[in-house]
Amino acid sequence: xxxxxxxxxxxxxxxxxxxxxxxxxxxxxxxxxxxxxxxxxxxxxxxxxxxxxxxxxxxxxxxxxxxxxxxxxxxxxxxxxxxxxxxxxxxxxxxxxxxxxxxxxxxxxxxxxxxxxxxxxxxxxxxxxxxxxxxxxxxxxxxxxxxxxxxxxxxxxxxxxxxxxxxxxxxxxxxxxxxxxxxxxxxxxxxxxxxxxxxxxxxxxxxxxxxxxxxxxxxxxxxxxxxxxxxxxxxxxxxxxxxxxxxxxxxxxxxxxxxxxxxxxxxxxxxx
Length: 272
Known about the structure:
Layout: H1 3-10, E1 18-20, E2 22-23, H2 26-34, E3 40-42, H3 44-50, H4 62-75, E4 80-83, H5 92-105, E5 109-113, E6 115-117, E7 125-126, H6 129-144, E8 151-155, H7 167-179, E9 184-186, H8 193-200, E10 207-209, H9 217-222, E11 227-229, H10 233-247, H11 257-260, H12 264-270
Parallel strand pairs: 1-11, 2-3, 3-4, 4-5, 5-8, 8-9, 9-10, 10-11
Antiparallel strand pairs: 6-7
């Protein structure tokens, strides 16, 4: 069974919740696979940070992103879903081309979000609903004839922008993306289980959830959520740990972290 079919099957209505951790390099993807997760997402932020850029920085060459995605896909046997930001293109035609490319690389799915301009990370510019839907439709059209099992995730980052916290706007956008052909829907920034359930009740396709405080896997499972991703949090958690270790080296127990690190033998078994 190919990766896309296995990934698509995880999204069937009768399939249980699955967690899709997000990798930024071959090694992180292999560790996720070794721990038994059925799929791996990528994180655009982690891939950018790894190269010394901020997330979605206009200064970062998109070829670096495609190279990272290709290397991650080649590193593991489990399906990979690519964080393709806004399709890495200004036009629907560019979105089509990039989704065909990511399908040919071997990804089981990919996401597309509704940000038009990332220049100011504190105030991104958004496509209007009609423009965003045209781009979602272009992504779907690009992969359907090549690989009908490819999972297109349509994402609105509306709650991460400088807007009022509006569930009605999120629902409007996700419902429109659903009608445009998306297989899975995603709205990072939902603040509570109650808000999550409100959004979910208006949709038919599976909803991917980036957990917020007080959300747990058990609560998400009980709510009927099918897919949970972790975004850039694993990368940030790893760098937080590194920062803490380096800041505390001169303390009495500053070198104790060395005993808590993963053994070299363990990582040698995970890597190739």
